[in-house]
Specification:
The protein is mainly beta and 173 residues long. It is built from 1 helix and 9 strands, in the order αβββββββββ. Strands 1, 2, 3, 4, 5, 6, 7, 8 and 9 form a 9-stranded antiparallel β-sheet that branches. The N and C termini lie far apart (50 Å). The model has no long low-confidence stretch (mean pLDDT 86).
Amino acid sequence: MLSLLFALITIASAQDRVTDNNAHGWYNYFGDHPVREGSKWGVHLEGQFRRHDVATAWQQLLLRPGVNYTVNEHLMLTGGYCFAETWPYGDYPFTRGRFPEHRLWQQAQLRFPTKRVTFVTRLRFENRWLGNANNSDFRFENRFRAMQRIIVPIRGKTYFTAYDEFWVYVKPY
């Protein structure tokens, strides 16, 4: 009976919410490439083009290059730079104008393969400089991100993957 009462209260309060319907298209490339066969050093290349209104207008551009160092078969360390540009979008945008962001980032990626699946843990720390709509000033903050991914091979180069990530903002001194 208590759960029915809770459900009714939740449904009643949800009717007052503002709904913002958006159709987004996110186009991504993620790649880790060794500088030569057998080298522990490599290049991380990442580009994300996020669009809204059925992919006709900008939402966000993110370019994230980095340098990889493979410690062993289970651990890869990476450091790099990220540029992000975010545009206002939707019926209720969180910003009045587009703004840039610059990041320095460092991460450790751990791989734990088993007979049937591979588990990947990524720990990333970001130093962020966030611009404002008129590019007159930048705010500094830090963010820690932890991602857990599971990879299940299906057949050949076909696989299933699922992941989740949480972010913790770390105030600067």
